[in-house]
Amino acid sequence: MDIFERIKKNPGPLGQFADYGEGYFIFPRLEGPIGPRMIFQGKEVVFWSANDYLGLCNHPEVKATDAKAAAEYGMYYPMGARAMSGETDEHLALEKELAEFVQKESAYVLNFGYQGMLSTIDALVSRHDVIVYDADSHACIVDGVRMHQGKSFTYRHNDIASLEKNLERATRVATEQGGGILVITEGVFGMRGQQGKLKEICELKNKFNFRLLVDDAHGFGTLGKTGAGAGEEQGCQDQIDIYFSTFAKSMAGFGAFIAGNKEVIRYLKFNLRSQIFAKSLTMPMVIGARKRLELLRTKPEIKAKLWENVHKLQNGLKERGFNLGETNTCVTPVMMEGSPVEATLLVKDLRENFGIFTSVVVYPVIPKGMILLRLIPTASHTDAEINETLAAFEAIHDKLVSGHYKQQAEQLLKEQNLEFKPI
């Protein structure tokens, strides 16, 4: 079969929705400054889909630092890859500050989070090594494992008994092949908001010989006494061998970093293909990241305000009978039963009639028959915006339970001769 013919016949789990939802449900276009209120389809909406947890993207000191750095260096400097011509004192200073903040010996700044995780996994393991990872891991971890030429095992999400069973399997394979074991999990699972069971995983080091890589994109800046993440929150930061996070969440920017033992980070610096063969992170972002990190360290009231808003939103939703699953982080997943078409109608109702913009997630990201609306509270949201949102959710919940969206979905499918299939 011709490759393009196959693509036409099988557009993929999300691609099948393209004609129906592109530009509105998928690839929506928001306008105006990033914040709790933005413009969507010409109307102002309360915006719950930014990952700007600490509200730093519009902080006056951050904007001034970014603007000054851009004016001085432009958006291209430094010219090449770090290994060739892209090393600067600012990069090294940021790495030193990051390492100290997350309580590690050394750190290395990466261009992008997704690429960085792929390349970190690729550089850490050989074909003789075995990877054991959580079944709900982010796509960057899954894709990194796909690159691995050796054995890999998944364990049931946050299930320590399942992890232990797979570590027994991994130990047998690694012993036979003369390799080691790398366990990978997340500090915070970004879709459902659960913390990874890092403390329990670290306790298994007393029984098994493995190294632990943690992706803490949603935990960095939001969890722990100082904001150093899920490991600090759970009292096991020192037992995380490789700590990974991105600048795209609490740091309101782009780029990422890894931190850990000095020798291991030095090894990764010389072996991460996604960094060796890619341009260095630009100077405005590096200097801007240093300012953001300074605010994380010196302004604890920002994180305190974030959690005040998290508790108001999550408690309000629970009081109204909503199922938030097992979230114990800022990520606020509202889980309901329904079809993908019902989900789109529900979301459209929220946006058009109540002025509330949330992300919607359906199968295959979550199980069939489920709708997940994910809200990301920030330090910038106001009580008024939280109350507006709670009132809107109460209204749409009644419609969902009464079958209103189900009836609309059946009518829509009939009128437009649509059929959405789980591909």
UniProtKB/TrEMBL annotation:
<keyword id="KW-0663">Pyridoxal phosphate</keyword>
<protein>
    <recommendedName>
        <fullName>Aminotransferase class I/classII large domain-containing protein</fullName>
    </recommendedName>
</protein>
<dbReference type="GO" id="GO:0030170">
    <property type="term" value="F:pyridoxal phosphate binding"/>
</dbReference>
<keyword id="KW-0808">Transferase</keyword>
<dbReference type="GO" id="GO:0016740">
    <property type="term" value="F:transferase activity"/>
</dbReference>
<dbReference type="InterPro" id="IPR015424">
    <property type="entry name" value="PyrdxlP-dep_Trfase"/>
</dbReference>
<dbReference type="InterPro" id="IPR050087">
    <property type="entry name" value="AON_synthase_class-II"/>
</dbReference>
<dbReference type="InterPro" id="IPR015422">
    <property type="entry name" value="PyrdxlP-dep_Trfase_small"/>
</dbReference>
<feature type="domain" description="Aminotransferase class I/classII large">
    <location>
        <begin position="44"/>
        <end position="392"/>
    </location>
</feature>
<dbReference type="InterPro" id="IPR004839">
    <property type="entry name" value="Aminotransferase_I/II_large"/>
</dbReference>
<comment type="similarity">
    <text>Belongs to the class-II pyridoxal-phosphate-dependent aminotransferase family.</text>
</comment>
<dbReference type="InterPro" id="IPR001917">
    <property type="entry name" value="Aminotrans_II_pyridoxalP_BS"/>
</dbReference>
<dbReference type="Pfam" id="PF00155">
    <property type="entry name" value="Aminotran_1_2"/>
</dbReference>
<dbReference type="InterPro" id="IPR015421">
    <property type="entry name" value="PyrdxlP-dep_Trfase_major"/>
</dbReference>
<comment type="pathway">
    <text>Lipid metabolism.</text>
</comment>
